[in-house]
Amino acid sequence: MNASSQSVLINGFGVLFVILNSFGLGLRLSVGKLLAQAGAHRKIAAWTLVINFVVIPLLFVGYLLTIASGIPGEIKVGFCVAALCAGMPFAPILAKLANADVGLSTTLLVVLTVATIIALPLGLPLAIDAVDAQLKVSAWEVAWPLLLFMLLPLFLGCVFRVWWPDLQAPLAQWTVRVAILCLLFNLNFSLVAYWDLFVETWGTASYIAAFAGPFIGLGCGYLLVSGLRVKDVGARRATEVTTAVRNIAPMLLMMIFPFAAYPLVTVSITILNTVGITIILLFVLVWRRANSGAGAPLLADAP
Length: 303
Prior knowledge:
- The chain has helices at 3-28, 31-40, 42-65, 73-83, 91-97, 102-131, 139-163, 165-193, 195-202, 206-227, 233-244, 248-256, 263-293.
- By secondary structure, it is mostly helical.
- It has a single domain, classed as Na+/H+ antiporter like fold.
- The model is unreliable at 295-303 (pLDDT under 50).
């Protein structure tokens, strides 16, 4: 398979994942329950926005300017993209696995996803300039893929849920399954196409830098729920999980469109997400075991 065919497969499966994931989220989204959850946890929602779009990006940029200043510029760009992409698509699944509040996790996911569509075009050019990565991108180059492939399918999913409620449940299940399959194909083809770059990157300490991402998110999530004195364990875990790992969907769009000519951006984002999801999954399994040992009941499923 030549490089052109590999690129088409990688990008095609990436865009399909983003579209199906956004459409599936819209199918599962009950606006009334979302507003009720957001109102009931308005302090958590508000501070989650501050943490994800002010504190975490500043920590990422500071880390890249100090401890990780020696890594290549393109990899720094990938980290800047990750810093501003909040709301991991699989947060409700991980919250359920951790016996956490799935409804709150879903609400925070939607809030962070919509906020990412606004914050990423505004903040990414500034973050890239701050780390001096020698790459330039305009707000519109960042915004149009988010509007077309994330916001529009999310809206269409909500409309479909209202107009054809009888078809919503089975379609949502298949949409999620196909979306995950597309993401796995995207990851596998990326590993094959850029394997040499993954190996070369090993010598730049970028993998070590990638470990900082999830721990920054976990630490900020812990400080958030501790500062607000959230006593409910389910709400604490849901907030920490949703804050810990970045949102792969907008990152894929950045890899495919504005930074398609820079493969190290793809490599850095892939490394960061793989390491991040692995670490958070380990924490989730530990939390689940602790809750099970304490006899904690499994909380309600996501809407």
